[in-house]
Amino acid sequence: MSEKVFSTDELAKFNGKNGQPAYVAINGTVYDVSGKDAWKNGEHHGNLAGRDLTDVLFNKSPHKDKVLQGLPVVGKLE
């Protein structure tokens, strides 16, 4: 099975709202954050699921990429 490739428009649909899972892209990899309580309703500290949050994670987050450990990878961002 080939890896799912998301366009930015397609990724935006996975915003954690209306029963949709919450996905975020970091450095071109798309992660499922739906299972994290911190991402309830697709939002975490003002950041929204369904987006590329690479800049936020590496330039504004105190925990950087260590929060990605254990998250399911669901595909790549084109």
Automatic annotation (TrEMBL):
It comes from the Bacteria. InterPro entries: Cyt_B5-like_heme/steroid-bd, Cyt_B5-like_heme/steroid_sf. Residues 6-78 form the Cytochrome b5 heme-binding domain. SUPFAM superfamilies: Cytochrome b5-like heme/steroid binding domain. It holds the Pfam family Cyt-b5. This is Cytochrome b5-like Heme/Steroid binding domain protein. The lineage of its organism: Bacteria, Bacillati, Bacillota, Bacilli, Lactobacillales.
